[in-house]
Amino acid sequence: MTKEFTLEDLKRVLLASAGAAEGVDLNGNILDTDFADLGYESVALLETGRQIELECRVSLEDGALAQVRTPRSLLHLVNQHRGTTHAHAGAP
């Protein structure tokens, strides 16, 4: 069974790919916070998407990445491509 891509995985990849905006706490309740409010613009999300593709061995279309607005929606997209399901994002 494929391991679910979790919120902790996403935060690690975001930090490695694009860093963190000053004053943004990624340890807070960010699942439904817009990526723009977290300081991540489209280029940062594309780079994050590329890192996720390498790590998870999935293919995410640029158009699909452009549509995700929150960590929850990105987790859903990644796990959908991996064939994993989850009761709620961020579950271990």
Salient structural properties:
disordered C terminus; single chain; 4 helices; 92 residues; Non-ribosomal Peptide Synthetase Peptidyl Carrier Protein, Chain A; mainly alpha
Beta-strand segment tally: 0
Helix content: 40-55%
CATH topology: Non-ribosomal Peptide Synthetase Peptidyl Carrier Protein, Chain A
Give the distance, in angstroms, between the N- and C-terminal Cα atoms: 14 Å
Q: Under the CATH scheme, which class?
A: Mainly Alpha
Instruction: Calculate Rg over CA atoms.
Output: 12 Å
Structural class: mainly alpha
Q: What low-confidence regions span 5 or more consecutive residues with pLDDT below 50?
A: 86-92
User: Which architecture name does CATH use?
Assistant: Orthogonal Bundle
- Fraction in beta strands: under 5%
Largest sheet features = none
Q: What is the count of distinct domains?
A: 1
Order of helices and strands: HHHH
Average pLDDT confidence is: 87
Global outline: globular
Number of helical segments with 4 or more residues: 4
CATH superfamily: ACP-like
Description:
This protein is an all-alpha fold and 92 residues long. The chain has one domain: Non-ribosomal Peptide Synthetase Peptidyl Carrier Protein, Chain A. It is 49% helix and 0% strand. The chain has 4 helices and no strands. The protein has helices at residues 7-18, 42-56, 62-67, 71-82. The radius of gyration is 12 Å and the shape is globular. The two termini are 14 Å apart. Residues 86-92 have low confidence and may be disordered. Residues 16-77 form the Carrier domain. This is Acyl carrier protein. Keywords: Phosphopantetheine, Phosphoprotein.
